[in-house]
Amino acid sequence: MTRGGAARAPKQCAGQARTAPPPVCAPMVEQTAQIIANERDTGPYFRLRVRAPLIAPRVQPGQFVHVRILPLKHALLRRPFSVFQVAGDTLSLLYKTIGQGTEALARMRPGEELSLLGPLGHGFTVPRPDGEIPLLVAGGYGMAALYLLAQRSPRKGLVFVGGRQRADILCEAEFRALGWEVRVTTEDGSHGEKGVVTEPLRAELQRRAPGRKLFACGPTPMLRAVGRLAAEHGLPAELSLDQHMGCGIGVCLACVVPIKTAGGWEYQRTCTEGPVFDFRQIAWEAAE
Amino acid sequence: MNLAVQIGGLALPNPVTVASGTFGYGVEYAQLLDLNQLGAVVVKGIRRDPVRGNPTPRLVEVTSGLINAIGLQGPGVDGFIRSYWPFLQQLKVPTIINIWGTSVEEYAEVARRLDALSGVGALELNVSCPNIKEGGAQFGTDPALLRQVVAACRAATRLPLITKLSPNVVSIVPYAQAAEAAGSDALSIMNSYPAMAIDVETRRPVLANVTGGLSGPCIKPIALKLVWEAAQAVRIPIIGMGGIQNTADALEFIMAGATAVAVGTANFYAPQTALQIIAGLRQFMRQENLADVRQLIGCARAGKGRAPEATVRHP
Ligand SMILES: Cc1cc2nc3c(=O)[nH]c(=O)nc-3n(C[C@H](O)[C@H](O)[C@H](O)COP(=O)(O)OP(=O)(O)OC[C@H]3O[C@@H](n4cnc5c(N)ncnc54)[C@H](O)[C@@H]3O)c2cc1C
Ligand SMILES: Cc1cc2nc3c(=O)[nH]c(=O)nc-3n(C[C@H](O)[C@H](O)[C@H](O)COP(=O)(O)O)c2cc1C
Ligand code: FES
Fold first, then answer.
1. What is the pTM of this model?
2. Helix locations, B157-305, DSSP H
3. Which of A62, A103, A218, B133 could form a disulfide with A222 if both were Cys (CB 3.0 to 4.6 A apart)?
């Protein structure tokens, strides 16, 4: 260091109250992470495990990492992925191959390296032992964002998982192994109940709603439906939103969503204030 | 070995800065790198009032670059001073504040407000935005308007003024000269280049704003040419930017005539880039036996420095 001391950011960590504009969230680091395993799960889904000792131990449920897929030369941006599982110095991602980045990632082998930025974002509130009973709602790779929450929650609840077909139902056994009840729906009826994931959720809430809290991650129409159900039953709900990202650390303002404020609404950053928002804060109408 | 350079009246400890809008307000990066190692911190563009910005999608990745239409979202000058200035003020390296407006008077007002703060390094005028009063003409693509805006800011502040030019012109020379004549102490070249992308599945433009600004490595050769041309037309120093992602890129800009450089889009995917370039410049100078980085400025012009046939190994 040649000139004076290092300039350090004021710390504001995940779980703290948010006031606009929040400078930053849980201390993040950039680190080279070696691939330990990268294997197909079902259909287009893969599981990736990397060694990331500076990041893995500090991940909160619902947080994500921003991954630079080094073999990509002309696609510059990092790709955001929820942290699926952590074990000691390692963390895992559960990802779907949908484009050039995820396809290049799927071709990478153990021993190769990625650059990770994390842990990023504001995650889910872990339920308290005497708090509401958590109901998790996941569509497709949304299950990845919810697994750590189920694992760290002192209260066990129900998980509603949905997808188009059998291959979209991920880590069902793992949720069961944690002692959670799992309700599966597929749109084509190839596994579990036929329909969309919010149908059994609706039935469950009609049976019993008070004292429960919803946590959801998945496609936007699913999240909006979960928000509507929460509103109907007067329940709290935390939704993890997906937005295309540039930096992942709050500087480019690409990833914004409309969030209600005292006087109306403003754009806040999915990567920093989110990806998890209280459903009552989201001004969906403003984005239309 | 000297790395320090002067941008107008502003002394930079080294020639490597960051580009406005790619570095937030500095504080966001403070966890990832030591800001005090940079040549300067350059913050996101601010105007008088808070700005909500454009609807999403605001950004799309393209081959070797990206197109953004953020819409200059920001907290306004009061919000900036309240939320971010206390942090920036305690940095040991200069802060350059990027400003914009929708009228000549607004630019001058923001300049005056920031002139009253203590410790500002310089103001950078982003002129790539429309003048609402003048029916939407861009400040940066009309030399007469450009001259007015620079002159009004010159009258409003004693801070060094850096005019950031738009590449969307037939020749950069009259704009560079207009800014210089109106009292600008330096130039930043270049802002992002107007561009768009279409989603073939939806058959619609990707960006909600339809068009946006192209940045990243794909614009580097364009930026380099503009710096080259401007450097021969004005005496004031130039901060070169556009797609810089490594030491060789930075050296190209300096050799084309830039006194300093800025790293932009690369901050998004490789946050250490600016610091790596500073280390790379040191290594290059050691290798080339150079005592002063200023010896390299504009050396690519015939008659300056090493002849073209010599082999220069870029680190
Ligand atoms: C907070 C967050 C958590 C996520 N967690 C997971 C996860 O656990 N598992 C998983 O499979 N996917 C996850 N995603 C989606 C994942 O980021 C995209 O599928 C991925 O970026 C696609 O990259 P690509 O190069 O294959 O696709 P391309 O379409 O080639 O990508 C082009 C550009 O669009 C962006 N992009 C494309 N689709 C998405 C999307 N759905 N969301 C955000 N950016 C997108 C890419 O990052 C890239 O910048 C998450 C997204 C967010 C925002
Ligand atoms: C997301 C984004 C936001 C930007 N915001 C600003 C801004 O507020 N003011 C400004 O003068 N330039 C802005 N720019 C332009 C950059 O400062 C820079 O001139 C341009 O991106 C070229 O450099 P690069 O290719 O290294 O990014 C922005 C660029 C990007 C990518
Ligand atoms: S991705 Fe850049 S601000 Fe969120």
1. 0.93
2. 173-181, 220-231, 247-256, 266-269, 273-287
3. A218
Tell me the CA–centroid distance for residue A57 and ligand 2, in Å.
35
Q: Which two tokens stand for residue A232?
A: 């109907």
Q: The domain spanning residue A231 has which CATH number?
A: 3.40.50.80
Single out the residue of B12, B4, B93 nearest to residue A4, CA to CA: B93
Cα A229 to ligand 2 centroid, rounded to whole Å = 42
Cβ distance of A244 and B269 shorter than 8 Å = no
Whether A8 is covered by a domain: the verdict is: no
A149 and A279 housed in the same domain: yes
Q: Which residues of chain B have pLDDT under 70?
A: 130-132, 134-137, 303-315
- Is domain B5-53+71-192+215-296 annotated with CATH 3.20.20.70? yes
The Cα angle at residue A75 between residues A70 and A79, in degrees rounded to 5: 70
- What are the extents of the domains in chain B? 5-53+71-192+215-296
> How much of chain A is helix, strand and coil, in % rounded to 5?
20, 35, 45
What's the pLDDT at A23? 39
Contact A251 B65 (CB under 8 A): no
Interface membership of B29 toward A (CB under 8 Å): yes
Taken in order B5, B9, B13, B18, is the CA torsion positive or negative?
Answer: negative
ipTM confidence score: 0.93
Nearest to B27 among A9, A68, A252 (CB): A9
Question: Measured between CB atoms, does A252 come within 8 Å of chain B?
Answer: yes
Do A273 and A190 fall into the same domain?
A: yes
Domain boundary among A95, A120, A145: A120
